[in-house]
Every structure is written in C-alpha cells, then in structure tokens.
Structures
1.
Amino acid sequence: MMASLPTGGAIRLVYLLLSNGSPSTRSISRVGPRAPETSAVDFLLCERLNGRRPTPIRDLFTMAVKLNALISDSYIDISQYRDQHFRGYRYEQEKLLKQSHTLYVGNLSFYTTEEQVHEMFSKSGDVKRIIIGLDKVKKTACGFCFVEYYTRADAEHAMRFVNGTRLDDRIIRTDWDAGFKEGRQYGRGKSGGQVRDEYRQDYDPARGGYGFSL
C-alpha cells in the first residue's frame, strides 16, 4: 500500500530519469513495493487523493511532456543564430547569451530614431542604453540597433511583447545578443551597410531603395 501524499487533489510525480530519458526504478523502495510482473514504466509512483486509481508512470510522463510544452516560453528562447564574429569560445558565447541583458533589434527603417526605439522598448523595463547601427562608410543609420536593459527580466519582457510588433510601420524582430562591443555598431556589408540589404532584390524605400549589389 502506498503512503498517501500530503496535498489534496493534485498529482505528485515522483520518478527519476535515466540518461536515455526513460523512467528509472532506482530508490523506488521509498515510494512503495513493486509487483514482479509490473514493468518499470508501469510502476505506480503516485496516486490521486480524490479517490481515483493511481496513474501509470508512462501516462504521467506523457502528461509532463505536454504540460512542459504548454508552459514553455518560446518567446525568450535563444535562437539558432550565432554571431560568427564573436571573439571567444562557443561555450563562452552560449553562457553570455543565457545571461545577457542585451537584445539585437533588426528590420528597422533607416529613418527610425533612437527616441522611437526607446519609447517602444522602455515599455518593457528600464533601458540602460541604445546603440543605433550605422553604415560604416556614411555613418548613417542602417536598420538595426542594440537595446541593453539593466536586468535580464526586463529584456525577457521585451522578447515576449516587442518582438514581431510594428515600429515606424515595420515589423521588427529581436534576438538575444551576447553583449555589445565597440565596433559592432557598424554594418558588415561591402558597401558599408548590412549584408542583407546588398542582396535584397525588392524595392524598400525605408531601407535605401533597391539592394546595393544590383
């Protein structure tokens, strides 16, 4: 007979995972005995206190996966993009991205001002500084910026609520940045602006017209 659980109504999931992701029977003696014919994944490690029969662990594992999907916050996940110009080891870059207070903001109009960026992003928290991206030749805005917050929490709010919204009549995108370094404010394209604008084939009046390589 299993020991009753301390709270009413809720399911308490008690299991260990092996390295391959399957439930383990280690330390199950602390929960209750197991019949010889019962497999590890069928072993009942928890019970409902509302009178219903215990739930097999394989069903609980499925429930846990579904619940995790429901509560996961994909808006603040780190994307697959990595700055190839990062100076350091990959693990250092990953660590910085997970701790960063800085966001990269792309698809801005060349005419969007720092004041407009601040007005939008300050709604998510206290902004420490904004660095507008510049054409390295003309020293004029070229459609991106960095927004640095004082805290990670405020940066996460911006990732949730600002990414994909409209600023200056354009849908902007945000991504985590490992941290601004002097020199990164300049475009990396051959013409001085962003690489994406050199190969763009459509006409975009807010980003200099046609692609510069045409």
Note: The chain has two domains: 16-71, 80-207.
2.
Amino acid sequence: MPCTWMTRPCGDSRRIASCRASPPARRWRGGSRRSAPERWADVRAAKVTLGRRWMLVLEPGDEVLATVTRWAEREGVTSATVDMFFGALRSARLIATNGSMDDPEPPLPDQVEVAYLEGVGAGSIGTVGGRTVVHLHLAAGAKGEGGAAYAGHLLAAETHYTLEMVVQEVLDPVFRLEPDAVFGINCLHFDEATAVS
C-alpha cells in the first residue's frame, strides 16, 4: 500500500517498513495528545522587528564565542538570532556526556571535548545583566572518529579552516536571558525595546 500522507507515494516494497498509510501520531510531553490551543498555551512568543543582517567569516584560530561576542559588542548588537553557522572546528567543548545518565531530565553537568569536527549550528545573542551573551548549539561530526556525531550547547570552540555565520539583528523585543526557576539554565525572555530620542 503506498503512503497517502507523504508528498509522493514511495511505491517501493523494500522501503515499506518506513512508510505508513497515515501520518504518525504526534506526541506532546508525557506522551499525551493535547489540542493545539492547550498545547501552545505555555509558549513564550513575541513578534519581532528585524534590523541589520550580517554574514560573518571566522578565521583559523578564532575562538568562536569570544570572537562573536566582541563583534556583537562592537556593532551594538544586543538581540539577534544566529540563523545558522557551519564550518570546521579544531576543537569544541559541549554540554554532553560519554557515560550513562541516571536521570535525563535535569541539565547535564558533564562536558565533552572533541577535536577536529565539521558541523552546523544555530543560536541567539542576548543579554544577562547587561552583558552580551552568545548562545549557540552545535551538531557536528568528528573527522577522526569516522564522523561520529556530537551535539549540544557550545561552551567553547576554536575555528580550524573557516566558520561562516548568518546573524539577524532583532530591534524589538530585547532578548534577555535569565535563569529558569526549575533547571537554573539561562532561558530567553522578551523585553520591550525603549525608544531612543
């Protein structure tokens, strides 16, 4: 039976195990299904007014977070999305673990350092107590490990050959990061931009 919910039927009996006659049920927290209004009632959202857009190119040896933070401070960028970045890294330190997790719910206290990666990522730029903070997540393959994948919150990284990044400034609202009451990690909040006269 061909897939009726896909863009086009697969029609290939060898791939039938990956096809279903109907789309898979979408699950929400705890495995229960909720209606759309109930499901999204707790989402923090804001319409954004966009500003300038940049393409950054980092050079070999550049420390990614420090370089982007200095650039943002120089340009006066306090709120932005890092729509994507990609490139080669000599090393990266991520929030991740090589061992088993007793409880996957709380934030990981562990860090993993990986050498010689190629990867992609995205993130945001905001402020914590008036200080500019670049928040990035990375998914990358380690070249010396057959492309073994690593992913997580980026704590530090050094550019190997090059790293290219697209940054979109947000004029309103202001992106503010503050610790979450439950997990203690910095989470994005929105403040109204104050008019400059």
Note: The chain has two domains: 1-43, 49-191.
3.
Amino acid sequence: MSQVVINVEDLSPVKKKVSLEMPWDDVKNELDAVKATIAITVFTAVTYVPVYALLLVFGVIKSHLGTAPWGEMVFQAVYQG
C-alpha cells in the first residue's frame, strides 16, 4: 500500500500552496468514462430541468424558445444531443 503525500508550501503570510501526490496505479475504484458521463448527464437533467421549468411557470425567468424556428431547435437538439 502506497502513501498519499500532502505538501503545503508557504507563498506569503496569507497564501499557501497545497499539493497532493497519489500514485495512479493504486486507484482501485476506477470509473468508466462512458458510465461517468451518462451519470453526470442524467443527474444534471433530473435536477436542472424541473427547476428551470418551475422558474418558467412562475415567471421568475423568461424564455424565448417559442420564437425560435422549429427546424433550428431540432438541429440543435440533434447536434448537441
């Protein structure tokens, strides 16, 4: 088992520089990039979309999506995912 090393360097009386050294070959819980991306996307969609919708319904924010052409919205949805 290797050690994690934390270095603290004084840059000035009020500034400190903290660095962390950890060997990557010792990381046991590696994440698959695709699974991590899917998890982040689902989490943000589940948390952001309802809040955005509520803010629209109560008039806190205004959206001009209704003025955009349908073709442009479909293109952006396909292009951006």
Note: Helices lie at 33-57, 70-80.
4.
Amino acid sequence: MKKLLQLLAIVSLTSSVVTGIVSYQSLKHLNKTSIKSEIKKNYIQSKLDASVQNKQMTDEQAIAALNSALNDVKGISSVQVDKPSAFAFEDKTYNVKVVLESDYKWDVDNFDGQFKVTANVGNYDKVIKQDIQSKLDASVQNKQMTDEQAIAALNSALNDVKGISSVQVDKPNTFAFEDKTYNVKVVLESDYKWDVDNFDGQFKVTANVKKITTIDQNELEKAFKSGILQEYNQKEAEEAILRVFNEKIDSKLTDPPLIEFKKIGTEEWDKEFEITIKIKLNQDEYKWASEFSGEFKIQTALNSTMMFYKVEGKNEILSKDFKETSIEDWEDIKITEIIEFGWYSNGQVCGIFFDDENNKSVSSIFSQYSQNIIFPEKLNKNITSLKYLFYNLTRVTNLRYISGWDTSNVTDMSYMFSEAWVFDQDISGWDTSNVTDMSNMFSNASAFNHNISGWDTSNVTDMSNMFNNAHMFDQDISKWDTSNVTDMSGMFRFAYIFNHDISGWDTSNVTDMSYMFSSARVFDQNISTKEIVKNGIKYKAWDTSNVTDMSSMFFDASEFNHNISGWDTSNVTDMSYMFSSAHMFDQDISKWNTSNVTDMTYMFSEAWVFDQDISGWDTSNVTDMSYMFFDAWAFDQNISTKEIVKNGIKYKAWDTSNVTDMSGMFSSALVFNQDISGWDTSNVTDMSGMFFDASAFNHDISGWDVKKVENYFGFYNDNGIWKKEWQPNFSKNN
C-alpha cells in the first residue's frame, strides 16, 4: 500500500511537472507573438527616395544605392530591386520589394512590402581628356598666328566633338612671335563626363603667335599732311613723307612707298601739287584699319616761300625764296609788280621780318616801294595771315587790286595797315568772317576813312588799338558783331573825329577797355547798359561785367558825357586815369561796385565839372589814390568813411586802410571841403602835395595816423584858412 501511494505520488508529481512545462511553453509562445516590432512604411519609402533622388546616376548606380539604402535598418530580411528599361538621363521608376524578418511587421496592415522609387538615371558618355588636348594642340601648333587667329582656331577645334557644351579661351598678353599659353576651359554637356576623375575641364595650349599692327589710314594721311610743310620743295617734301612713313611703319618689314608729284596749274608761279603716295603693306605684319587700296592723294602747296615778281626795266617774271634771307637781301631789288606773294607754312605772308623774339620790332620789304607798285590780283587761298602786310607803307597811295581780294581764309589782320599814313581805299567787300585778330589794324593809318560797316566781325577776339591814331576815321560800324571780342583797349584812342553810334555792341566778353576812348575828343555816344533784341535774339549791350581794366578809358575824351550809371564794374581792378581830362563828364556813377579796384590814381584829375555822389563807394582794396581829384575844380562830395548797407550786405564806404599813396590827391581841388577826419591813413607813406592849392579845405584831420608817412613835402601851402592845429602832425616822423 505504501508503495502504491508512493507510486501515485510520483505519477502525480510527474503529471504536474509536465503540465507546468506545457503551460510555460504555451505562455512563451503567446508572449513572443505579442512583442513583434513594427517598421514604418513611410520611413522606408523616404530612405529609398533619398538614396537616388536629385542625383544623376546610371541604372547600376541607382540599383546599388537602393539595395544598400536600408542596410542600417533592423528587421530587413531582403531587398529586391527590379531594373526598368533605361535611356540616357530619364526619370525611371524602380519596383523595390522589401521583405521583413519574421519577428517584424509593417505599420500598415496588409502592406506587402512593395515600394516604387523614382530616380533620374542614364549612362554617361565619356570624353577622353587626352583626345581633347591633342585636338586643341593641333589647331594652333606649328603655325604663325595672331592672337585673334589662335583664339578662333581654339574655339572651333572641338566643333566636331560630341558632348562639348562650351569652350572659353582666355587671351594672354601678346608680343610679336612669342610662344604664348592659352587657358582653355571646356565644359561638357550634362550627360557626358571626363574619363579622368575630378578633372575640371581646364586645358593649357601653347601657340606661337604674332601681332599684326593695324594702320589707321586716316591718321596716317593726317600725319603726311602735317609733315609736309608748304615751304618745302619737292625733295624736302619727299624726305618728310619718308620720315612720317618710317615713324609709323618699320621699313625693314615693308617696302618704302612710291611717291609721285604732279603740279596743278600751268603758270610758272602756280604752287599747288598733287602728291600720290602708294604703300603696299606686308600683310604678315600690317593691315589697314578698313578696306583701303594703300594709295594716298594729298593736295598741297610747295615752294610757298617763293615770291614771283617783276622789277624795273624788265618784263620777265623773276622769283626769289624768302627762306634764310634777311631784310638786307631785298633792299636792292626794285620791285614794280608782285605776281604772287610768298607765305610760310603757318599762313603768314612773306616779306615781314621781325627783329626780336617778341615780334615787336618789324621791318617790311614792302615799305620801300614806290607808289606805282602793283600787288597781286588774287590773294592765294593758303595765306591766312596778313599781319603787318602794309605796315609803314607811307609812299603807296593806290594798292591796285586789293579791293577784290578773297580774304575768306584770313584769320589775322593785325597791324595790316599800321603806319600806312596815306592809305584810304575801298575794302568794304572783304570777307572777314574768319578773322580773329584785328588789333592795331588801322593804328596810325591817319588818312583811312572808308566804309567797312558790312564786315563780319563775329569771330574777332582782339580789337585792341584797332583805330588808334586813325585821325580821320568816322564810319558807321554800329552793326558789327563784337560778341567774341575780349580786348578793346585803345580801340578809339586818338580817333579824334570818331563819333558814331555803337550803342548796340555786345561787350559781354570784353575784359580790357583801358584807353578805349582816350583822346577820342568828340566821342559822345550812348554806351549805357541796355537790353537789345537783334534778329530775334535778346542780349545785353555794353555789358561790362567781365571787364577788369578801365584805366584811362575816357582820358582826354573831352566831350563825353553820357549815362553809364548801370555799368557793372564788379570785376574792375584798375580805374586809374579813367576820367582824367574828361572835361565834360558829370554823370551819376554812385552805384558802381568798386570793391575790387586797387588803383584810382588820377581817376578824376582835370575832370573839371564832375561833382557827383560817390559817397557809397567801396574802396577797401584801393592802394593808390594819388592825384585822384587833382584839378577836379567842381568836386565837393561826402567821401567820409561810413557804414553802408546795400542789398542786405554791410560794408564800410571809403575805407582807406590799404591806401599807401595819397600824394596830390586834392591838389588844386578848389572847392573840396568835406569831413574826412575818419579816414584810416595808417598805411599811407606818401602825402606830398595832398592838399596843395586846395584853397577851400578847412576840416580837422589832426587825428590822422601819419606814422608811416615818409614824404609830406608840399602837403599844404598856407592860405590862411586852414587852422594849423587841424593839420596832421608830421613832426613826430622826423
């Protein structure tokens, strides 16, 4: 029984153990199913996409990338990629089958692991680097080329190579026939690649290049023309042409030019030539700037300094060259007729000899001729300067033919009739449209009085001394265009009888009017500033805003007494002698701007009737007032120092602080008796004769600072009126 019980106990225990084992295995199985890991579909899709998208790949590269894209993802049993048909660089869709390990599942129910991935795939065509280098080298090597030719050859060398997107050639600095290295950048099309990894397409190609020099035929022609002086003979002209040629073209590389001379005209004195210059360029070295035959034709005068003439007792035409001659070489030649003038290359008529470097001292071969001399019927067009032509021609009364001269090319008529005392011919028809200089043209031509009213003076800039000492001249020149004139100094000086209307003249560019009407003793015309309308154009007549010098302008213009109150004198620096001996002048000039004037010497001396208000004048820059009112018999105006406000600007009128010379200032100013005690005389050094014979003056100026005065001789001659104690004390200066 006991054994039976033991047996039952063993069976029971065994049964319990077995039951427990079964139960544990069942539990283990149940637990394993419940913890299966999920793999997210979208995550796998994104990793597959990322492995191939935005990349250019071949099929093989794309499949390899897809196959390896999930290597780092746990739970992947296998990846199978189907290869689609592929053409060069197309978007292709790959079917990718992803199989999970048994203890993994997809996060999406019933998903079978089939993915679709799109990639841009294709097969690269390879471009062989060495082949490209060889083709580039072959295009330029063993050839002599210019830079342009070498670059063109390199650019076209790869035209037959597939896969080339662009070729860029950098141009190096070049000199004639040197080996030069060009950097050539070759860019491939997108579906091609180099056979060498990491190659950037940069090639270096060496070529032997040269520079072909471009010759600008227009510039060369100008150089020929400027190099051939009109005073040259044919031999000298040919030498000049060769000089220019050799400067521009290397004669070692190109044959010298062929030069031919052909005279134009049949007369012995004809000086015009046509010069033909034929140049055949070495085309390996030079080229013309544009299509050109290489033949130049230049028309010019030669032997221009040769004068053709006749002499007493002979009918034959003689000639003599002015080159390397002096006035003495012409003294014994008794010329009766000039057939053709000579002229220099600058256009100046020959026959005038300047005796110094400044062209101030002049001798003329024409001044020795008798009154019967005949001048050329025509003026050569190459003559542009008639300067001094008839200078000092005192014996010739009839200059035959000159009235009909064509002067349209003449630019300089200065001194033309200067000192020609007896000249008085009709030259009204002359074309003066290109003349710029008429200075001294009729100076001392004391007989001249012909009509020149129609002259075109629009280009004249200098009329200084034009009618100086032209004692008889009194013609209407009111319509002259003076808009470009800058110098009118001395223009009517000693033109004793000139008194014509010039009220409309445009003087806006004139800077110098000194001596303009000096001793023009009857001149008394309206020359006030005014608005004028002429040919529909408005301008300001007698605009003096640019004038700097008015010294002696009306000196001894004893009749002048017109209103010039509106003149702009703001730039004038010199008014010395301006109205000296202008006996009749007594006009309001109170508003004149004198702020820049430095010299008022003798300004109103012997202006016998002048007694106008000038109390507001700004004299702050004046240094010299010597004899300013000498013999100004009527003047007695307030010229004391005072504060003035004009156009909102405050200044000190009659500020004498910079004056150094007051000698003779009021000498014989018979009625002047104004308070000038406030004048600043601290810089004055000369007061000699200042109030000599100023018989009416009787003001206290004892407070003047005279410490710097060195000369006070004759300061005042005692007339018994002026109190001694009111006079400056010069004793301290001794």
Note: Residues 37-122 form one domain.
